[in-house]
Specification:
Blueprint: H1 3-6, E1 15-21, H2 25-28, E2 40-43, E3 47-51, E4 59-60, E5 71-77, E6 84-90, E7 97-99, E8 102-104, E9 109-111, E10 115-120, E11 123-130, E12 137-144, H3 149-152
Parallel strand pairs: 1-12, 3-4
Antiparallel strand pairs: 1-11, 2-12, 3-5, 5-6, 6-9, 7-8, 7-10, 10-11
């Protein structure tokens, strides 16, 4: 046998890709303490905290309008499955956090969807989970967006689709506002 055949099987690692945007990022440089160069390994039992306080938060945002601890992400394994996920918790008493239009107040938490946009103040963060098998740790990979994420990325539409499967947006422009009619005109 060769050393290649005897080598242990390498397991894949769950990676949380986070793409950051703020309209004043070029002037204020609030992301200067974040490491955009490489993936970082985080132990599964550690809570990834984002905020202004560098003594508590591993992911430091240099902005006085950001709370000392803005939010946290906790890696966990789903009950009765081998799947892993992330839970996001708002730790700011001053600022509400939204995750795909779901508003979280102080200490509210939800499961992080596999792809979502996290917003607070003027901050926009696109979070994308790349699933893996490892359960002892996960990785984070940070990116910087040049344009607003809400305009740049097309997330799945939350608008209902009619039963015929044809979206109204495929039809030529029609007047969308309601028209007032007199009941005698019918």
């Amino acid at each position: 046998m060769t050393s290649f055949e005897e080598a242990e099987t390498q397991e894949t690692v769950t990676c949380l890709h986070l793409t950051f945007y703020h309209p004043g990022q070029d002037e204020k440089m609030m992301f200067r303490c974040l490491n955009f160069c490489k993936r970082e390994e985080v132990r599964a039992d550690d809570v990834a905290k984002f905020g202004r306080d560098s003594s508590v938060c591993h992911y430091n945002l240099v902005d006085t309008r950001v709370s000392r601890i803005q939010f946290s992400l906790q890696f966990y394994r789903k009950l009765h499955t081998s799947e892993c996920g992330f839970e996001i918790k708002n730790l700011s008493k001053r600022t509400k956090l939204t995750v795909n239009q779901t508003e979280l107040g102080y200490l509210n938490k939800i499961d992080l969807p596999w792809r979502c946009i996290i917003c607070f103040g003027d901050y926009q963060i696109l979070a994308e989970i790349q699933e893996g098998e490892a359960i002892d740790y996960f990785e984070t990979h940070l990116h910087l967006a040049e344009a607003p994420i809400l305009q740049e990325k097309c997330l799945p539409s939350l608008q209902p689709v009619p039963e015929n499967g044809i979206s109204p947006s495929f039809f030529p422009a029609q007047e969308k506002s309601p028209t007032e009619m007199d009941e005698n005109d019918m």
